[in-house]
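ok trying again, last paste got cut off:
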Amino acid sequence: MAIAALWLAWNWTSIKGQARVGAAYGAHITCSCRYIEGRDMEACETDKEAGMEMVRLSDDPENKRVTASVLFLAEAVAERRGAFGCVQLNEAEIEDL
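nice, full thing came through this time. structure:
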């Protein structure tokens, strides 16, 4: 148990960084799938890459927004913004939601 805790502490920055990348990628790809391609969430879930099993997706159709999260580690939000397509929200924009 102590070895696992030590390993986790040693690799925490890397694990958190990978979680952020996975959440950001998941939010952006799924937003594009839903609101550019017009597919449903079930179809978009199949677009997740191998290794993204921990990324959870939620859809906000009213605001054309997708949230992706990795439990306790990362959250990312992407929304459709007209001709710009799907864009990632920054931390201040996420806090204002």
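cool. The first strand starts at residue 55 and ends at 60. Helices lie at 2-35, 41-45, 91-95.
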